[in-house]
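Fold this sequence, please.
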Amino acid sequence: MFGNYLIGLREGLEASLVVCILIAYLVKTGRKDALKPIWIGIGVAVGVALAFGAGLEFGSQELTFEAQEALGGSLSVLAVGLVTWMVFWMRRTARHLKAELHGKLDAALQMGTGALVATAFLAVGREGLETALFVWASVRASSDGSYGPLVGVVLGLLTAVLLGWLFYRGALKINLAKFFTWTGGMLVVVAAGVLAYGVHDLQEANFLGGLADKAFDVSATIPPDSWYGTLLKGVFNFQPDPTVLQVTVWALYLVPTLALFLAPIGSGPSARVKKQKATDEKAEAEASA
């Protein structure tokens, strides 16, 4: 459940921060008339994400077992790829996300209502689709027939909304770079488990071989239905009897990805971001004058 809570918190907070930045900028610059198109774009993005998630869940139920496993495994691999790209992108841009969004919003304000709707939709929609896909893959990987994984996701999203609101009200200061570094590292670990489960799905669909080649079997020591077995599965998508291919793929993904993610990155914003930041500060100064 914790792993799914982390997904909901991490992904939801990204979307919440994007919304807060867009709304706060319009309010501070005296453009409250542009709030309605922004909310329309946000609402459409949320609706599309929910429809996408529902389509994945209910659409897959009509397939044969092999087709379900093939679809689930393929989408799990895709979800891990998208989330991996996202955590690296957010780590690089977290400190300058505000300036980049302000630049896009300034351009949209000049183009009109349709551009504002599109800007909000694209900014939130990307996060929503990534969240729906990864949550579906993770819940599918860790689900044991209970609602625990889904409850974890919902609680994470609700926490993210609360933190976003506090952030907007100025009651909460968040070091975004550190927050997204720590949660991103934990999310890489969760993604490794989802990837291994996706490989297992592809093996059950006969798309990949080696289903009978077990790397180890500790089911007697860590029963899947025990509290600690459930905890390990919920947090890390741990499987007591993985195949050799699952363990190999898990290690080949986790070790280099985590090493690269935690490696130091160049400090300081780019010239483009510096210029945009100076423009934003000038606009805010003129608005408050």
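The chain is about 80% helix and 0% strand. The chain has a mean pLDDT of 77.
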